[in-house]
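Re: the request from the purification team.
They wanted to know what the chain is likely to look like in 3D before they choose a buffer screen. I agreed to run a prediction and write the result into the notebook, where they can find it.
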Amino acid sequence: MVKPTKQIIRPYGDRRDDGVVQLSFTLPVPLSEKAKEAAAQFVKKMGFSDVKVAAAERAADNYTFFIVYARSGMYIDYAEIDVPEVVIKKMGFDDLNTFIQEKVARRIVVFGACTGTDTHTVGIDAILNMKGYAGDYGLERYPWFEAYNLGSQVPNDDLIAKAMAKNADAILVSQVVTQRDVHKDNSRQFIEAAKAKGIHGKTILLLGGPRVDHKLALELGFDAGFGPGTKPSDVANFIVHALLKKMGREDPNAHYQGEPK
């Protein structure tokens, strides 16, 4: 096996490879010159050099928010990084609908919700609602999708039960709140419930949210993960290709879970 050529990369600030980074954090001290010095010393103890406190603002009583510029001597070999990705041959709205009609020959049933105590629906609405996101139609707009958006604060068991009642092909779980890794804990609980109900490995299970990526989703037991910037058509295309794969009619142009193109 031929070893890949090294691709050394460093942070870019003012010029290539200068190692300059921007850090932001809060310290539990009131805003003052002493507080700024504390922020600078904190960053230096992290191993950074050429430290500059660019901004300091009162965040609350006895709390100060800082933005700091500093230089790092660290680098990484980009060629050595191997991360699973969702890679598919993407089709447009009309072509995908025609493709579903010809290859699946029925409407694809999809359920989605923001589960647990999470009250945020921005993400799941962007994917499922008819208007979609950034000019990209949501799944409700697709004639060959039957999409159900259950909204927020939906218990995992309720989402699974309603999806099973309609023989759903895919379930989308949205997790926005990330404090103390709530999104991970609730996602694990969803997977445990899916396994208990016997749909894990049968129904396509997707995870989305601001701190979600494909790698995390796979680690938690989902079929795919979608993070910030995901468009409805990205999810729609993945579901179609993943469903065909489960049906034994896999598209040779589709790739899953970081498989090579």
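For the purification team: Residues 134 and 225 are 20 Å apart (CA to CA).
Please add any questions underneath this entry.
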